[in-house]
């Protein structure tokens, strides 16, 4: 392939220089393959023995011409070397690799090839053209030699890290070739791929270059055609799964450095295959075909699993791009979870060909929430059964009714927080895996959600009060973290963990201003520098500057060692991040270790006992396997909701009672006023009406408001019934009056005080 007149043949190495007519060799020579007359190895080129004569039209032919050789071409491989030569009287010019013979090149998919194919009208292709298409798309060598990165001869740099493929060229050329107007071409390509190429793909490959087609073939539109899923996409996925460990690792490396749209295309391909197969399953699969159907589904999921593993290492695309949103419409996800648990615990077989919970990365937030609800029901039933068996109810009544399908918390309205804290402290052995109902002593109101929401709102506000000193507030980020200076015992941290778990278990949003690091730790994931930047932006930026500093004089420029300075009741205290850290300066080669140790101290070491108590309390309620299906950000949204506000969606989902309807004059000016409010006022309105200024993890579509008219005239304020997300709205006729009264109501809201 060299662009020079010289020839080089590789294995051991031989080289021919036309100007002198000589052959040189070097490398391994144990079998005499170097032609030097010995069996020694050579590290540098040495002349191969022989009477070599250069080609020249002016050359005088020696008298004993049969003793001289004019080389035309050399070959080398294994333990052999040989040359194709002529005697001087018959000499011809040696092969010049600067001008390749097109007749001797392998077929490849290129612009010229495609344009030639497209000149033939629709219909039957000439035999020689059909044979060329078949030969090209039946040959792994032809496809591996196509779409090469020609800029700076990049394809010569192919390695375990670099494919040498121009993926943009592959996409453009495949789309030029496969067109609806040339169905005859598409049919021939599909037949060649199906019958000849894919079935013959080997699990063991001779070189990394033989993996190129595994990158390029998914760009072919035929692969994404649902009609070809069982004949092309699934067999191709099977070939991927059959690759030996070493070539699969190379393919994963190549996938990891793809541009996000290219990587996403492969993910979308096998997501589409899964959806296609599940639709067939929903319609009905004949018993005779279930085994092969199961294999197909496993293949698609396992390819996605490998792609997800690659993405976990470097996040080529966002994790939610693996979600299959149609899952809940195609299978009974609750039954699937039960089957999965039974398989995990008892090894039971199910009727479902594949237990989808085995591949949790495909579940979106809505599916995971359904699984959490399913797990809650299972855990509740197990708890009730256990309580009946052990007859422990007398230990918890009258405060907790533990054999009831619900966990009943009885508190006094005038001491809601104090009673709740005392009750939860005294009942650490209660199984909290039940729906929570809050009852105010002396009142007959039934908790249908609003009282429970109010309970969580107020108890968290009390427990996070600075007077306890349990958490440190960071002004710059407006977030809190565990304080290692607290005098409170671990029981109170255990209690907060229980309350957070109860909030998730009862699908109630709570106001909890922790960084994402808390949810990472709850899911056994390590906090990183990004988490430090979120909690302590100034410190995080400083750490990043340290890592990015280009010079070698880090010790002099930053004057750091492996310690951290902390405040301790008005004084400063130096803590060592590692043993003897005060004696270890931060230099270029250990700066990453310093940053890692700093992050570890803030999020782990300094608060280990406090977080351990919180963790134990949280997992006492949310200890099921399903919790591990959540990403940290999704778990955070389960606890505190999210801020993906869609105010038009809120208006669209609102229901009206009594005289009100969507086009009632009062309702029209209400929404005009509401949409003109600044974001903070809109959030205050949500808090006023629902008990939280955030929305459920599933979005505004799951937040349904109800507005009804109320008597009393325009002098009265709107009234919120948090239990029902119900707003009593007087029949205002003036826009300014409505705005004034609405703002007055939400500005003075505190608990249920206005109701």
TrEMBL record:
Catalytically driven reaction(s): S-ubiquitinyl-[E2 ubiquitin-conjugating enzyme]-L-cysteine + [acceptor protein]-L-lysine = [E2 ubiquitin-conjugating enzyme]-L-cysteine + N(6)-ubiquitinyl-[acceptor protein]-L-lysine
Signal peptide segment: none
Top EC group: transferase
Keywords from the named record: Cytoplasm, Repeat, Transferase, Ubl conjugation pathway
InterPro entries the UniProt entry points to: E3A/B/C-like, HECT_dom, Hect_E3_ubiquitin_ligase, RCC1/BLIP-II, Reg_chr_condens
EC numbers: 2.3.2.26
Biological processes annotated in GO: protein polyubiquitination
Coiled-coil ranges (or none): none
Gene Ontology MF: a single term: ubiquitin protein ligase activity
GO cellular component: cytoplasm
Main subcellular location of this protein, as a coarse class: cytoplasm
Domain HECT: 428-755
One Pfam family matching this protein: HECT
CDD domains found in the cross-reference section: HECTc
Domain of life where this protein originates: Eukaryota
RCC repeat residues: 21-87
Catalytic residues of the enzyme: 723
UniProt cross-references to PROSITE patterns, sorted A to Z: HECT, RCC1_3
Localisation per UniProt entry: Cytoplasm
Keyword S-adenosyl-L-methionine appears in the UniProt entry: no
Metabolic or biological pathway: Protein modification; protein ubiquitination
Protein name per UniProt: HECT-type E3 ubiquitin transferase
Gene expressing this chain: HERC4
């Amino acid at each position: 392939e060299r662009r020079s007149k010289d020839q080089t043949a590789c294995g051991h190495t031989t080289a021919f220089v036309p100007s002198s007519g000589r052959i040189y060799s070097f490398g391994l020579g144990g079998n005499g393959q170097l032609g030097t007359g010995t069996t020694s190895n050579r590290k540098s080129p040495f002349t191969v023995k022989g009477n070599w004569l250069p080609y020249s039209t002016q050359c005088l032919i020696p008298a004993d011409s049969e003793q001289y050789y004019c080389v035309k071409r050399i070959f080398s491989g294994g333990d052999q070397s040989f040359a194709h030569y002529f005697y001087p009287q018959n000499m011809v010019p040696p092969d010049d690799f600067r001008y390749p013979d097109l007749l001797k090149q392998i077929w490849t998919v290129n612009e010229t090839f495609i344009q030639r194919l497209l000149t033939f009208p629709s219909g039957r292709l000439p035999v020689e053209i059909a044979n060329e298409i078949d030969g090209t798309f039946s040959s792994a060598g032809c496809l591996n030699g196509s779409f090469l990165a020609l800029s700076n001869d990049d394809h010569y740099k192919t390695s375990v890290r670099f494919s040498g493929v121009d993926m943009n060229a592959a996409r453009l050329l495949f789309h030029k070739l496969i067109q609806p107007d040339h169905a005859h071409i598409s049919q021939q390509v599909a037949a060649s791929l199906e019958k000849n190429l894919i079935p013959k793909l080997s699990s063991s490959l001779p070189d990394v270059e033989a993996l190129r087609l595994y990158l390029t073939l998914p760009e072919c539109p035929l692969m994404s055609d649902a009609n070809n899923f069982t004949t092309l996409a699934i067999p191709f996925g099977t070939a991927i799964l059959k690759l030996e460990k070493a070539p699969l690792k190379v393919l994963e490396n190549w996938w990891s450095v793809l541009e996000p749209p290219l990587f996403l295309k492969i993910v979308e391909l096998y997501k589409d295959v899964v959806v296609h197969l599940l639709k067939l399953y929903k319609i009905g699969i004949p018993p005779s075909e279930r085994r092969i159907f199961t294999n197909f589904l496993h293949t698609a999921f396992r390819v996605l699993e490998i792609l997800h593993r690659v993405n976990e290492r470097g996040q080529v695309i966002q994790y939610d791009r693996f979600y299959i949103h149609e899952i809940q419409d195609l299978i009974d996800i609750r039954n699937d979870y039960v089957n999965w648990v039974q398989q995990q615990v008892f090894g039971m077989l199910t009727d479902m060909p594949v237990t989808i919970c085995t591949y949790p990365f495909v579940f979106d937030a809505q599916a995971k929430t359904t699984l959490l609800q399913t797990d809650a029901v299972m855990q509740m039933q197990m708890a009730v059964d256990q309580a009946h068996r052990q007859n422990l109810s007398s230990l918890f009544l009258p405060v907790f009714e533990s054999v009831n399908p619900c966990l009943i918390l009885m508190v006094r309205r005038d001491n809601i927080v104090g009673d709740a804290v005392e009750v939860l402290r005294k009942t650490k052995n209660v199984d909290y895996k039940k729906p929570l109902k809050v009852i105010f002593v002396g009142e007959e109101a039934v908790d249908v959600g609003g009282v429970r929401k109010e309970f969580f709102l107020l108890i968290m506000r009390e427990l996070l009060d600075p007077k306890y000193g349990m958490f440190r507030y960071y002004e710059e980020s407006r977030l809190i973290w565990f304080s290692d200076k607290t005098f409170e015992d671990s029981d109170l941290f255990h209690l907060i963990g229980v309350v957070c778990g109860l909030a998730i278990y009862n699908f109630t949003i709570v106001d909890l201003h922790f960084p994402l690091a808390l949810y990472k730790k709850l899911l056994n994931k390590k906090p990183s520098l990004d988490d430090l930047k979120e909690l302590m932006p100034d410190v995080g930026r400083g750490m990043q500057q340290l890592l990015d500093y280009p010079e070698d004089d880090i010790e002099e420029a930053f004057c750091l060692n492996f310690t951290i300075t902390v405040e301790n009741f008005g004084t400063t205290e130096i803590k060592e991040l590692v043993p003897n850290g005060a004696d270890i300066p931060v230099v270029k080669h250990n700066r990453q270790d310093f940053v890692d140790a700093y992050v570890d101290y803030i999020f782990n070491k300094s608060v280990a006992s406090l977080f351990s108590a919180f963790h134990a309390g949280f997992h006492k309620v949310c200890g099921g396997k399903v919790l591990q299906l959540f990403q940290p950000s999704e778990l955070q949204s389960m606890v505190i909701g999210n801020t993906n506000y869609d105010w038009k969606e809120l208006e669209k989902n609102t229901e009206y009672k009594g005289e009100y309807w969507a086009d009632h004059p009062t309702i029209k000016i209400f929404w005009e006023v509401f949409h003109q409010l600044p974001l903070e006022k809109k959030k205050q309105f949500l808090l006023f009406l629902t008990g939280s200024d955030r929305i459920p993890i599933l979005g505004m579509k799951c937040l349904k408001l109800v507005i009804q008219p109320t008597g009393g005239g325009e002098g009265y304020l709107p009234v919120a019934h948090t239990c029902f997300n119900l707003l009593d709205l007087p029949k205002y006729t003036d826009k300014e009056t409505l705005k004034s009264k609405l703002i007055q109501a939400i500005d003075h809201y505190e608990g249920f005080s206005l109701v």
